[in-house]
Amino acid sequence: MLTVRERWTGIGGSAVALGAILVFIAAAVLALLLFQPASSGGAIFTSYTWNVLRFTLLQAALSTALATGLAIPVALSLARRPHFFGRIWILRLMALPMGLPVLVVSLGLIAVWGRQGIANDLLLTLGLSEPISIYGLSGILLAHIFFNLPLACRLMVASLERLPGEYWKLAASLRLTPLSLFRFIEWPALRQVLPGIAGLIFMLCATSFTIVLVLGGGPAATTLEVAIYQSLRFDFDPPRAIALSLLQIALTGLVLALLGLVKRAEENGTTLAAPSRRFDGWTGTALVWDVVTIAMAVLFLLLPLLAVFMSGLRADLGRLLTSSAFMQAAATSAAIAVASTLLASFVSICIIKGRLAVTDLRDAGKAGRTYRGLLGASSSLVLLVPPVVLGTGWFLLLRPVGDVSCIAPFLVSIINALMALPFVMRVLEPSMQTHHDRTSRLVAGLGISGVWKLWHIDRPVLLKPALLALSFAMALSLGDLGAVALFGSNDFVTLPWLLYSRLSSYRTADADGLALILGVLCLLLTIAGTFERPTERSGHAAG
Amino acid sequence: MRRLTLSLLLAINLAPAAMAQEKTLTIYTYESFTAEWGPGPKVKEGFEKTCACTVNFVSVADGVALLSRLKLERENTEADLVLGLDTNLAAEAKATGLFEAHGLTTPAVDVPGGYSDDVFIPYNYGHFAVVYDTQTMQNPPKSLTELVEGDPAQKIAIQDPRTSTPGLGLLLWVKSVYREDAPAAWEKLRQRVLTVTPGWSEAYGLFTKGEVPMVLSYTTSPAYHMVAEGTDRYQAAPFSEGHYIQIEIAGRVKTSEHKELAQQFLVFMMSPAFQNIIPTTNWMMPAAATSEPLPDAFSRLVKPQKTFLMDPKEVAANRQAWIDEWLTAMSER
C-alpha cells in the first residue's frame, strides 16, 4: 500500500531514470551512425559473423548453465550453515573476482590450470604424459565459472536467507527429509531468483572479451564483442560497430526472452520476519556433504587468487604505494568508483520504486505490467551495450564542446554506473520488494513517512543489502578498464589502466604488485559490504 | 554531491600548470612513450630547452588507438604533431588528409628497409622476432619455416592482427615469406599457437609467467631483460629468411597553429639529443645516429640479415582480405 503521492513519485521517478538511460544510449548510437567513415570494412553478415554469433551464444549458454548449476549446491550448503567460523570470509572471497581486472584473474587461473599450473603438475606426478590444455572452449568456460559462480552463489544465499524463519521451524516439526525440504522450501525460493541470475550471467558471458581472447586459443573462439571492438579500434567504422552491436543486443535479448530469463515473477509472502534458525542438516552425511562442497568451492576460488597475491608479494610494494603515479591513479579510481556507485544506486532505487508502485496499482492492467516489464528488461539489457560504443559515441558528441580530459571522468563514471546497474538491481530489488510487502500497509496505516520512515523503518532492514550492492558496484568499477581505454590521457589514469601500462612496458613485477593492491582494496570494500553489527540478528540479511 | 564533484575535479586536474609560456606544442602519442620511465619526460625536457615552448603530450593506448583518435577528431584535433604510428598504418593515416609534408631533408635517418617519406619521419624501429625462454627451450626455431613446421607441443603465444600491431606484423611477415601459400602455413602454425591475445601485453605476460616458451615480440625485447633485470634468460631467435620490421614514425598535422614549432621538433627528433634517449626508454633501435654508444646488451641482439617491409599502400589495400584469409585458416576445424 502506497499513498497516491508515493505511487506517482515512484512511477514518475522511474520514468525519468528510464528515459535518461535510453537517451544516454541513443545519443551515443546516433552520434556514431551519423559519422561518415572514410572507408567501410566490408560486408557485416559474412559466414564468419554467423560463426562468431553461434559461438558467442553457445559459450554463453554453457557458461551460464555450469556457473548457476554448480552454484546451487554451494549456496544450499552455505545457507544451511549460517554460523560457522570463517563463513563471512567465504562470502567476502566471493566478491573478489569481480573487482580485479579480467586479465589479472586470467593469469591467476593459468597459474592453477595452465600448462605449467598446479593442476597439471599434480596430473604429471600422477603419471599423465602430456599436460592437459585449457585453451579453447574449456578455458573460456572455466574462467566464466570462476567469475560467475561466486556471483550466483551470493545472490542465491541472499534469497535463501530472506526466507522467513517459520519455514525452518515448521520443516523441523514436520520432520521433512532433506529432499522434501529442497522441494518445498529451498527450490521454490531459488526458482524465483534463478531466471534473473541466469539472465545476468548469460549477458556477462555473451559480451565477454578479454577472457575469450586470452583463453580462447584462436579466432575460432571469439565473441561479437571482439568484432565490435575491432570495428571501432582498428577500422574505425562506426556504422559497422553499431550494426554489430544491434545484432548483439537483438539476438542475445531474443535468446533471453525465449528462455524466459528477462521477466521474472518475484513474490514473497509477508511474514513476521522472525530470525531464521536452521534445524536441518545435522546428520553425518549432510555434514560431510556440506563440508566437502564448501571446501571445494573455496579451493576453486582461492587458488587462482592466491597465485595473484603470491606473485604480487614479490613486487616492491613500498615503492609502488608511495609513487605519485599510484596515488594519483588511486584517487582517480576512488572518485570514479564512488561517483558511479552512487549514481547506479540512485537510478536503481528509482527504477525499483517505479516497479513497486506499478505493482501497487490495483487497476494497473496491461499497460502497467508492460511498463513494469520494460523497467526490468532495460535495466538489465543495458549490459549488452558495449561500453566502447557508448564511450566513442559520447566522445564524438562532446569533442566539439569541450576538453575531453575534463569530460572523461564524468563519462566513465556514467558508463560504469550503467554497467553496475543490473548488479545493484539484482541485490536491492528482492530485499526492497520483501520489505515493502512486509511494512507498507502498517506504515501507511500509522502515517509514517519521509526521513522518519527512512531511518526507523527502512534503514534497519535495507542497510545490509544496500551496503552489499554498493560494494558490488564499487568493486566492479574499480576493476574496470573498458571505458577508460578510449580517453586515456596523462591526466586521467585509473588503477587498472596503470596496471596495463606497466605490463605494456615489460614491468610485470609492478603489474603483479598493483594486482595485489587492487585485490586488497576490493577485499576491504567487501568487508564494508558484509558489515555486520555483532548484536544484529540475520533474519532478513542479504548475505 | 558538490564535494564529490570537487574531488573528481581535483583527482583529474593535477596536470602540470605550466601554461605561462606562450607556445604549447601538443603531441599525440602512445601511453608507453609518456610513461614516467618512457622517453616522454626526457624528450620534453630536452626539447623545451631549445624551443622556449611547452611540450604537452596527449597519450592513448597504442598506435592503433592513435589513428582512431585522429579519425574521430578530424579537423578539430588539437594535435600539432603525431608521434607513434607505424609504417603499416601510414597509408591509412595519410588517407585522413590530416597530415602535411614535413618539408625537411632527412639524411640523418637510417633505417633498414630504407623507408623514406615526404610526410612521416621515422624515429625508431625494431624487427619482429620470436622471443624464447632459454630455460625451457634449448633448440629454438632457426627460420620461419622451422617455426611453422616444428614440434606442435612447443607452443607460441601470438597477437591478434585485428587488434594489435605486432599481430599485424606477424601476418605481414608470414605473407612476405609465404606469399600465396600463407594460408597453408597458418594452418600448420596454428597447431603450435597456444593462444591469440588481443595485445602484446597479454601474450608477453603469459610468456614471462612461464606458461609458454615462445612469444611474438621484438629483437630488442631481450635488451630490456639484460639491461634492466640483468638476466640473459630471454633471447630472440634469428630467422634465416629475415625479419619483418616495425618502423615508428611521426608527422605534422595540417590544422596545427604551430607548424614551424612542429617542424623544429622533427629536426630535434632526428638529432642525437633525442635519439640517445630511445634505446633504454622505448627499448627500440634509434632511427638516426646517437652521440653515445648503445649499451653493450644491444650489440648482443639479433641483427637480421634481411629486412621485410611492405609498401604501406599495399598493406592498406590488402589488410582486410589478408585478415579474412587468416581468420579462415585459423578457425577451420
From TrEMBL, chain A:
Topological type in the membrane: Multi-pass membrane protein
Similarity annotation: Belongs to the binding-protein-dependent transport system permease family.
Subcellular location: Cell membrane
Keywords of the record: Cell membrane, Membrane, Transmembrane, Transmembrane helix, Transport
Tree of life domain: Bacteria
Source organism (scientific name): Pseudorhizobium tarimense
Pfam family, one: BPD_transp_1
UniProt-recorded name of the protein: Thiamine transport system permease protein
Automatic annotation (TrEMBL), chain B:
PANTHER family per the UniProt record, alphabetical: THIAMINE-BINDING PERIPLASMIC PROTEIN (PTHR30006:SF3), THIAMINE-BINDING PERIPLASMIC PROTEIN-RELATED (PTHR30006)
Localization, UniProt: Periplasm
Keywords: Periplasm, Signal, Transport
Family matches, as InterPro entries: ThiB (IPR005967), ThiB-like (IPR005948)
SUPFAM superfamilies in alphabetical order: Periplasmic binding protein-like II
Protein name: Thiamine transport system substrate-binding protein
Record has Transport as a keyword: yes
Organism of provenance: Pseudorhizobium tarimense
Pfam family name, one: SBP_bac_6
Main localization of the protein described in the UniProt heading: periplasm
